[in-house]
Amino acid sequence: MADTGVLETLLRRIEKVDDGVDSLEVATSLGVDHQVLVGAVKSLQALGDLISAELRSSKHWELLGEGTEIAEQGSHEARVFGSIPPEGLGQSELMKLSFGKIGFSKAMSNKWIRVDKAHEGGPRIFRTVEDIEDQVREKLLLVQRGNSSKLEEKEKNELKKRKLLSEVTVKSYWITKGSSFSTTITKLETELTPEMIANGSWKEKKFKPYNFEAMGVAPDCGHMHPLMKVRTQFRQIFLEMGFTEMPTNNFIESSFWNFDSLFQPQQHPARDQHDTFFLSDPALAHGFPPDYLERVKKVHSEGGYGSQGYKYDWKVEEAQKNILRTHTTAVSARMLYKLAQQEKFTPVKYFSIDRVFRNETLDATHLAEFHQIEGVVADYGLTLGDLMGILHEFFTKLGITKLRFKPAYNPYTEPSMEVFSYHEGLKKWVELGNSGVFRPEMLLPMGLPEDVSVIAWGLSLERPTMIKYGINNIRELVGHKVNLQMVYDSPVCRLDS
Amino acid sequence: MPTVGVKRDLLFKALGRTYTDEEFDELCFEFGLELDEITSEKEIISREQGGSKASGASDVILYKIDVPANRYDLLCLEGLVRGLQVFKNKLEAPRYRRVAPVSGEPQKLIITKETAAVRPHAVAAVLRNITFTQERYDSFIELQDKLHQNVCRKRSLVAIGTHDLDTVSGPFTYTAKPPGDIRFKPLNQTKEYTAAQLMSLYKTDSHLKHFLHIIEDKPAYPVIYDSNGVVLSMPPIINGDHSKISLNTKNVFVECTATDLTKAKIVLDMMVTMFSEYCSQPFTVEEAEVVYPDGKTCKYPELAYRKEKLSSGFINRKVGINEPTEKIAQLLTKMCLRSEVTGVGDEIQVEIPPTRSDVIHACDIMEDAAMAYGFNNIPYTTPGTYTVANQFPLNKLTELLRQDLAAAGFTEALTFALCSKEDISDKLGKKISETRAVHIANPKTAEFQVARTTLLPGLLKTIAANRKMPLPLKLFEISDVVLKDETKDVGARNSRRFCAAYYNKSPGFEVIHGLLDRTMQLLAVKAARGDGYHIQASDDSTFFPGRCAEIFFRGKSVGRLGVLHPDVLGRFELAMPCSALEMDVEPFLGRTAETALAHEVAAAAAVHRPPPARPASTRTVFGDVSAPAGLRALDDFLADKSYVEGFEATQADAAVFDALPAAPGPALRHLARWYNHIESFRRERGGLPAAKGRFVLDAFEEHVDVDAFNKI
C-alpha cells in the first residue's frame, strides 16, 4: 500500500475540487514520481468506492538526447557554418570537430558553404552566404516549449526519423469522488476469520474486495493420460453396446495366430522383415491345435470349404515364427477358435483396445507401436448391411453420423470396406478405419457353423485422440517424450461433443 | 496398396469421355479405387530432386490411382479402362483365347533339371502381330514393373522376361549354370559380362541391387538360351540385350520363371490378357509349350475360365439386399464376371475369367455383387444379436486403479513397450541375462531390441524429457511388460505392472511408501504379515543400498520399492533423487484371477490332456473328499488359507487336488477358489516344493491323524 500521507493528501485535493484532478498534475505539484500517485490511486480503489478513477492517455512529443543538444547549441550544419571564419577553415580542421563530419554534408547540400579543393595547404571551406536560418533548431525549440502542435505531422515524422524527437504516450488518471467519498481511510479486512464469526464483529467490518480477474490457485492433483482417457471412452462405448472385452494381454504372438489362421498367405508382404518384428528369443511357438493346424495348412495350400486356396507350399516353420503381434485380430482369431470349440455356438460381440507393433519407418504420425481398437460380432446370418448398421451406431456415439463406405482389399475379410466420414472442418471425406466380413477360409477351418457370419472393424486409437486434442506430432502424445504440461492441461474426454 | 500412374487425357480418351477430377474421384471410390494424387512428371521431379531438374520434364497431367493389392488386372491403363468400361456397361468383357500358331508348331521352352535347385518353374506365351506405340510400349514395361513389385514379391516369386521373338529362334532352354559359365551382353550394356561380373556390376544399380540376393548365394544361376545359344535372360535379374523389344517389335515371346507355379501362371495370364488387345487378332494369345525335365509337356498360357454356381439368395442374404436373380446376374456381369441365370431355382452360373485370380471363393463373387450394387446403396440394419457385455477382469481392475492413483496426486505416463537392452539392464544395474526379456530379431534401431521387462525405465525417461517442469514430478503407469515363460505356446507372456516414481529435491521414500499403502487400501489388502501385505529390507542393484524393500502379499513377493541408486539416476540423466515402486497387479485380481485367458485356451486345446484318472484315494485328513462332509471340511479349512500348507503352493496342494474326484461346485467357494488356483499350476506342478505333512491317506487306512490340522 502506498504511503498513507500521499493517500490523504490526494483525498484532500479531490475534496477541494468539484470535478476532479489529473494524477499527472497532482504528481508534479507534490513533486513525487507519477508512479507513486498511480499506486495511491490503486490503493484507494481497493478500499471501496472512495474515489473513481478513469484511465486517460495523452500523447506528446519529446526531444531525444541529440534533439536536446541541437535545441541548445544549434544543428550540426549550423554549427559547421558558425565555426567557419570569413577567411575559411581547413577541411581537416573542420573534421576534427565533433559535429564536423555530420554537419558538413548537410551544410554543403544547403549551399551554406563551399570547398576549395585547390587551395594551397589542402582543401579549405568557405562560407557562401552571410546568414543562415537554423530551421531544425527552431522546430525543436518549438517542441521543447510544448508547442509541437505548430509543426506539421510531416515535419515531426521527419525529425522522428532523424532520432531527434519521439512521441510518448502518457497515461494518467482522472480522479473524481466516489459514491462513498471520505477523506479518512478505514483499514479493510482481507478475510473473514473464526474470531469475527465468533464475536460477530464481521457485521461492523469492511472487507477488501476480491480481484475476480485473477486466476485461482491450481489444485495439487494427478492426471490421466489423454490417450488413456480416450481409450476409457471407447471401452465405455463398446460396453454400452453390449460388447465383451477380449483378453489382449499377449504382445508376443505366433505367425500362426497372427497371419495363418486369418488366411493371410505366407508370402504376404505384411510378413516381411520390413513390416513385422520377429523374435530371436523365444524364436518359435509350439503347441498349435494339431487338427486345426492341418485344416489351416490345407485351406492355404489346396483350398477347401468352397475355396480355391492360394495353392502354395504352406510351411509350419513359417507359422511357428514368433512376432510382436501386428494386430489384435490375432486375439480375435484365438477367441473365435475357442468359440468354435464350444459344444453349441452362441452369438458373441467382442472388442479390444490394445497395443500392436509394426516395424515401420517412423514419422510425425507413425510409431512402431500403437493402439488398435477392434470390434467383432459373430452370429447366424449377419449381413453387410448389419455391419454398416453397427458401424453407424458405433460412430454415432462418437458424434459422427455421416458415413460412406469404400470397397477395399484385406486378405482375411471379404467384403472389405474402408469407412469414411465427412469432416466438416476439412470439408472432405476422411478415412476412419477398416471393416469387413471374415472370410469362410478363416472361419470354417476353426469349426464355426457354416451359416455363422463374423463381422469386424478396426481403427487406431491415436488418430482420433490426436484430432480430439489437436496434437500434430505423435511423440508429444505417446512415449517418454510426452509433454507433461499437455497431460496436465488436457480436458476430460467426451467423444460426442 | 499399389499405385498406378496414368496420363489423364489418355485415360479419358480410352474411356470415351472426360470427367472433372471430382467426378473421376467419385467413380474410383465406387469401384474400390482411390484417386490418390493429381500431378505431372514435372511436379514429381521438382518435388523429389528440386525445381531446376524439372525444367525439361513433361507437364502432362498424371492420375495416381491406388489399386487394391489383389487386383493385378487393374495395374495398367489397359486393364483399368477395361474394368471401368465394363462397370459402366459401355463394353462387354472381352473373351481371351489361347490359339495354336498358324505354322502349327508352338514355341517350346525346355526346362532342365538343374533349375530345380534355384528356380524350378517356367511358363511362356507369344503375343503375335502386336502393334506398339510409344504409349503402349511404356505401359507394357510399366505393367511388368508393377507385377514384379506386387504379385511377384519383388521378383522372388516370379520374374517376367519379354523378348522380340524375331531376333531369336526356338526351341528355348531354361537351365541353370555356374555364374562363371554364363556370359552375355545384358540389356542396355555395350559389352559382354559373365554372370559373376554382372552381380558385382549391379551391386551399385539403384534398381537391380534389390533383386541380387534372390540368387546370389546359389551355386548355379537360372538362364534361358535360344537354339543358337543366345541368352534371352538371366532371371530374376536381367534380360539379354540381343532380344530386347522395341517399338517395332511385332512378335513378343513372354516367359515367366518362378519359385511359385500358381503365381507364375497368374502373372503370365495378366501380361497376355492386358496386351493381347493390340494383337492383329485382339485378345488371342499364341500358345507355347513347356517341356519339363521328366518329359511331360504343358501348354501356356492357361487362360482358364472357371465356372461357379451360386444362388442369388446367398448373395442377397450375405449383403442384406433383396434383388431378383436376373438383377444379381447383371450386377456380376458388370464386374467382368459374366453371369447367367440357369433357371434352376435362383441359381446363377458365374464365369470367372483368367484376369480375376482374386476370385477364389463364393464370398469374392458376393463382394463384387455388393460393389456393383453400390456399398452405399445397401440399407443399414441392426442385428438382433443379444449379448451381455463383460469387461476383461484385469483391465477392469486396471481402469479402477488408474482413476484412484490419479486422485492420489500421480500423473499417468504412457511409455513404449519396446526399448533397448540397455534400458532394462545396464542402466538399471542389472545383467540382460537375468531379465527374462524377449529379444527382437530385426530391430531397425536400438530402441526396439527387446520388449520391456519393467516399466521403470519408461517412467525415468519420461522424467528426463520433462526435467524443466516444476518439481516434484509424480508419475505412474499401469501397463504390461513381457517375460519369457516356457509354459505358454509362444514362450512368453505379458505381466501387468504398476509402477510409480517420485522425483524431487529429496528422495521422498515416504511418499512412494505412502502410495503403496494407499494402493493396498484401494485393493482392500490390510497391512499384516501372512494374509495382508508387508515390506521388508532387500538388496537390489537398481536401488540405493539400504533403501530398498521388497513388497510381500500373502507371503509372496510382488514387487519392490525404494530410493534409486545414484548410478541409475545418472544413466537416465536425472540430477535429483528419485524413489520408485514397481509391483505386479495380477496377484490382486482375487476371484477373477482364474478366468481363463482366451489365448491360453486355444493353446491348451492343443496340449494332449490325459483322461482324468480316478483319484487313488479320496481319503484325506479333512475326511473323505468324495463325500459332502469331507468337502465342507476342506472348504472351511481353506476359508482363510491360500494353500494347504504354508504360504505357497506345494506338493501338499497337488496331492489334495488329485484326491478330489471332480471340480467343486460354486457353493464351496473357498474350495473352488483354491481348486482353480491349484489347477493353474498344472504344467509346473512337478516343480512345486515338497510337502511337509501328509494330507492324503491310503484308501483303506483307518486312522486319521487329526493332529495334521494343528501342525499347520
UniProtKB/TrEMBL annotation, chain A:
It comes from the Eukaryota. It comes from Cyclopterus lumpus (Lumpsucker). Its EC number is 6.1.1.20. The keyword Metal-binding applies. The keyword ATP-binding applies. Residues 229-491 form the Aminoacyl-transfer RNA synthetases class-II family profile domain. Keywords: Aminoacyl-tRNA synthetase, ATP-binding, Cytoplasm, Ligase, Magnesium, Metal-binding, Nucleotide-binding, Protein biosynthesis. GO terms for biological process: phenylalanyl-tRNA aminoacylation. GO terms for molecular function: ATP binding; metal ion binding; phenylalanine-tRNA ligase activity; tRNA binding. InterPro entries: aa-tRNA-synth_II, aa-tRNA-synth_II/BPL/LPL, Phe-tRNA-synth_IIc_asu, Phenylalanyl-tRNA_Synthase, PheRS_DBD1, PheRS_DBD2, PheRS_DBD3. GO terms for cellular component: cytosol; phenylalanine-tRNA ligase complex. It is found in: Cytoplasm. Belongs to the class-II aminoacyl-tRNA synthetase family. Phe-tRNA synthetase alpha subunit type 2 subfamily. Signal peptide: none annotated. SUPFAM superfamilies: Class II aaRS and biotin synthetases. Pfam families: PheRS_DBD1 (PF18552), PheRS_DBD2 (PF18554), PheRS_DBD3 (PF18553), tRNA-synt_2d (PF01409). This is phenylalanine--tRNA ligase. PANTHER family: PHENYLALANINE--TRNA LIGASE ALPHA SUBUNIT, PHENYLALANYL-TRNA SYNTHETASE.
UniProtKB/TrEMBL annotation, chain B:
SUPFAM superfamilies: Class II aaRS and biotin synthetases, GST C-terminal domain-like, PheT/TilS domain, Putative DNA-binding domain. GO terms for biological process: phenylalanyl-tRNA aminoacylation. Pfam families: B3_4, B5, PhetRS_B1, tRNA_synthFbeta. Residues 303-380 form the B5 domain. Its cofactor is Mg(2+). GO terms for molecular function: ATP binding; magnesium ion binding; phenylalanine-tRNA ligase activity; RNA binding. CDD domains: PheRS_beta_core. Its EC number is 6.1.1.20. It comes from the Eukaryota. Keywords: Aminoacyl-tRNA synthetase, ATP-binding, Cytoplasm, Ligase, Magnesium, Metal-binding, Nucleotide-binding, Protein biosynthesis. GO terms for cellular component: phenylalanine-tRNA ligase complex. It is found in: Cytoplasm. InterPro entries: aa-tRNA-synth_II/BPL/LPL, B3/B4_tRNA-bd, DNA-bd_dom_put_sf, Glutathione-S-Trfase_C_sf, Phe-tRNA-ligase_IIc_bsu, Phe-tRNA-synth_IIc_bsu_arc_euk, Phe-tRNA_synthase-like_B3/B4, PheRS_beta_core. PROSITE patterns: B5. Belongs to the phenylalanyl-tRNA synthetase beta subunit family. Type 2 subfamily. PANTHER family: PHENYLALANINE--TRNA LIGASE BETA SUBUNIT (PTHR10947:SF0), PHENYLALANYL-TRNA SYNTHETASE BETA CHAIN AND LEUCINE-RICH REPEAT-CONTAINING PROTEIN 47 (PTHR10947). This is Phenylalanine--tRNA ligase beta subunit. It comes from Cyclopterus lumpus. The lineage of its organism: Eukaryota, Metazoa, Chordata, Craniata, Vertebrata. The gene is farsb.
